[in-house]
Design brief:
The protein is an alpha/beta fold. Strands 1, 2, 5, 6, 7, 8 and 9 form a seven-stranded antiparallel beta sheet that branches. A six-stranded parallel beta sheet has the order 12-11-10-13-14-15, with helices on both faces. Strands 3-4 form a two-stranded antiparallel ribbon. Helix 5 crosses helix 6 and helix 8 runs parallel beside helix 9. The protein is elongated. The two termini are 26 Å apart. The relative contact order is 0.10.
Length: 331
């Protein structure tokens, strides 16, 4: 999780500027401390009910470092069907950045508080709320809840209780990346133990989840990452998660060329693409006849241009996946 999306320079720049904003703000002197790390927002615990909360807000879309403001907001008592929640962790996902920029399909009504994901503690319950108790830890199961705040009142049906012994960082990042990985492994191609999945972006949060879930299911994975100075360390780390093969786009294409189109393992039935551009082509070329490639991201900002020969001679299938989209809604 800590390594998720750290390869994206725009996300790294945004995180740095957010930390500078908070360091220079009055929140650093407030009784309730707010701590930011490179991959998550951390809030220290507070006891009892307070009528104020700290939140990052924006009233127009744009680059986060330009439109976000740290504000103190009033927090009311929970009404019927509502929960008063104290947020403990909230990550920064690329979808959060895109939402603030106005580039994401989810368009919140402005002014708004960003944050699709996080973990909170139940402070108080409104009338007719069942299944929750004060002190429970909960995560949002509906996007756009606005988790970049210390506390707030929310609709209880938009949250799910999680075990208290689940580490906070894991709970805060439970509902987007691991669920995306699981859905893609289960919803598109029937897979059996021994089958092979090829993916790019293997060091991303979804990529790590794919490796671990695939290993638990008895699947093999071919994992494409960028070349880097600490290659041996990164390869070792991914293999400890359960990766079978760790390679680069260039090495994979060379292997396919030398072996008559055969990949480093058996034919791949399923390919997962979060990068686009030439990396997506490498994933497609590693697929077996009739294989399926699922695109769930485009971190390179390059289009997915598939050679005509792969469509004609391999009869490949190309699908898209968005956790809040049609496939997720129908399942």
């Amino acid at each position: 999780i800590q390594r998720a999306y750290t390869g994206n320079p725009k996300v790294r720049k945004f995180r740095l500027k957010l930390r500078v904003m908070l360091t220079q703000s009055v929140v650093a002197k407030a009784a309730r401390a707010v701590f930011w790390t490179t991959s998550r927002i951390s809030f220290s615990a507070m006891e009892g009910f307070h009528s104020k909360a700290k939140a990052l807000t924006y009233d127009s879309t744009g680059e986060p470092e330009k439109v976000l403001k740290l504000q103190e907001l009033d927090v009311g008592q929970p009404q019927e069907g509502q929960l008063l929640l104290q947020f403990l962790r909230a990550p920064i996902n690329p979808s959060d950045v895109n939402t603030i920029q106005g580039k994401y399909p989810i368009k919140p009504q402005l002014p708004s508080i960003p944050g699709h994901e996080g973990v909170a503690e139940v402070v108080a319950l409104g009338n007719k709320v069942s299944g929750f108790s004060v002190g429970d830890r909960v995560v949002p199961i509906q996007p756009g809840q606005g988790t970049w705040r210390t506390r707030g009142v929310f609709n209880a049906k938009h949250f799910w209780r999680v075990p208290r012994d689940l580490p906070l960082e894991a709970a805060a990042t439970l509902c987007v990346n691991p669920t995306t990985a699981l859905a893609m492994l289960e919803r598109f191609v029937p897979l059996s133990p021994g089958d092979v999945v090829v993916q790019n972006g293997a060091t991303s949060a979804v990529g790590q989840a794919v490796i671990q879930l695939a290993k638990a299911k008895g699947l093999q994975t071919v994992n494409i990452i960028r070349d880097r100075p600490n290659w041996a360390e990164t390869e070792d780390w991914l293999k400890k998660l359960g990766a079978d093969v760790v390679t680069t786009e260039e090495k994979l294409l060379e292997s396919l060329k030398q072996n008559g189109g055969k990949g480093p393992l058996a034919d791949c039935k399923l390919g997962l693409n979060c990068v686009g551009g030439s990396s997506a082509v490498a994933v497609a070329k590693a697929l077996c006849e009739g294989g399926t490639m699922v695109t769930y991201g485009g971190m390179s900002m390059q289009p997915v241009n598939i050679p005509t020969s792969l469509l004609i001679f391999k009869d490949l299938n190309f699908r898209g996946f968005w956790l809040s989209g049609r496939v997720a809604r129908t399942h």
